[in-house]
Amino acid sequence: MPSVPPAPPIRGVIFDFHHTLAHAGDPAVWLEEAWSDLGRAGDPVSALGAATHTEAVEFLDQLWESARVVDPDSERDLDSRRHRAVFDQVVAAAPGIDGDLADALYQIMHRQWDVYDDVLPVLAALRDKGIRVAMLSNVGFDLTPTLERTGVHALIDGAVLSHAVGVVKPDPGIFRRALDILELPASEVLMVGDAWRDDAGAAALGIRTLILPRTDDPSHGLELVLRLV
Predict the structure, then answer these.
(1) Burial of 80: CB neighbours in 10 Å, binned 0-12, 13-18, 19+
(2) Cis peptide leading into 5, omega within 30 of 0?
(3) How far apart are the first and last CA of the chain?
C-alpha cells in the first residue's frame, strides 16, 4: 500500500475576530451602560419591566445574526454609513429600545468587545513558534483601536478589514489579502473562524479551515490551533 505524503506544515494562521478572538460581551451590561450614558433615571430593568428587559437583552444578543436577514450580502461591512443604517433597521424591532437608546448602544458597542481568555496566550505561543498570524474581519469600521486595547494588535503581523479592502467574506479575494500579509501559499495556512458561511470561504483557495462555533464560555478552545501547527 503506497504511503500517504504528509500535508505541508502550517506556517501561518488567519483568525476571524468576532466570536473567534473576541466575544461581544454581556448584552445586559451593554444595555445598562447605554442607559447610564444617556443619564436616564433608574436602571433598564425597573424602567422597562423585567419581561421587556429580558426580551431586549435576548434581542441584542442575537442582533447581528438578525442583520443577516436584512443584509444577507454583508454590505454593512463595506461602509460605515451602511453599517449604522443596518443596525438602526434591525434594532428598531427590539422591545423597549427607542431611538436615543439605540444611538447610545451603537456609540459604545465597541467597548463591549473583549478577547476570550485563551486568545493572548495562544497568539503569544504562535509567535514563539515562528508562526505568522493575520486577523481578518467583516467589519464596517476601523477595528484598530479595539485590537490595540485588547492586546491583539501587538501579537499579529497584520489585519484585513473588509471596509478597508472593499470585499467581504466569503469572497476569496479577502482571504488573498490575508495571504499577502502572511507571505505564504494557501497550502501552508490555517483559517480559524466561527461561521461556516463566511470563514469556510478560505477553503476555495485551498486554505485548511477550522470552524469553532460561537461560545459563551470564557475560552474558545483555541489551544486546538497549537496542536495543528
Answers:
(1) middle
(2) no
(3) 28
* CA pair distance 151, 132, nearest whole angstrom: 16
Nearest to 134 by CA among 147, 145, 146: 147
Domain with CATH 3.40.50.1000 in the chain: 12-22+114-228
How many Cα atoms within 13 Å fall on the side-chain side of residue 191?
32
Q: Which amino acid is it at 35?
A: W
Q: What is the assigned CATH class of domain 12-22+114-228?
A: alpha beta
In the numeric block, the cell 428587559 is attached to 53
pLDDT digit string, tens, across residues 39-58: 999 999 999 999 999 999 99
How far apart (Å, rounded) are the C-alpha atoms in residues 228 and 210?
10
Q: What is the pLDDT of residue 166?
A: 96
Instruction: Give me the amino acid identity at 138.
Output: N
